[in-house]
Write a structure and sequence with these properties.
2 copies of one chain form a homodimer. Chain A has 132 residues and is an alpha+beta fold. Helix content of chain A is 35%, strand content 28%.
Amino acid sequence: MKGIRFERQLLHKLWDNGFAAVRSPASGGAISYPMPDIIAGNGKRFIAIEVKMRKSLPLYLTQQEIKDLVMFSNLFGAEPFVGIKIPRSDWRFVKISQLKMTKKGYKVDDEVYNLSLDFDELIGKSIQKRLE
Amino acid sequence: MKGIRFERQLLHKLWDNGFAAVRSPASGGAISYPMPDIIAGNGKRFIAIEVKMRKSLPLYLTQQEIKDLVMFSNLFGAEPFVGIKIPRSDWRFVKISQLKMTKKGYKVDDEVYNLSLDFDELIGKSIQKRLE
């Protein structure tokens, strides 16, 4: 339940920052399609986020999870991100190209985490700030 | 339950035709945002559909329903449609500009229904056919 609360907070933050955002239903029914946890758009950018809540790093992801996220995003026309919430830290967003490969899938270690985007960078706000 | 079955069929049809599509959860939680029933994208076009199943016409829609659909679609960057399923008929899709105003909201009568798009027209398939 705590996870859902954080996911809703992220949804609110997207709406507050000019994005229309929806949470995918946990289950797509009998036949399920690869759906990310959150899809958001602001008329210019479309973002698909696979949400992960973890107590600590590294965060491990299966090949299938990333395959599904990339497949959905490519078809839909969205940029794929892995959104990570660690206790007492703000949300961070990792691009697929930033993930490190493991034998069985992918991982986000401290190095990847430190290179990831914060919320403002995700929505392109910080770039705007720099240009002003 | 029958309604959900038809909504899933529409979702399958979108996927079968090159669209990544998601169903919005029925309830957005404590704080709810205006979310359409289905959001679909194929990298070029983004479609938001408010789904309605009725035994017969006319179909009445409240001002709030249409306001929410248009508001979401404008922010997200999608084309808004009202998707209508009537027993023993295929899905039809009505543009907002095609809706008729009533005192309390909007309606889809036989005239509007006959002018509405079929599935192929919705996804732009029939235009392609004509050009081939």
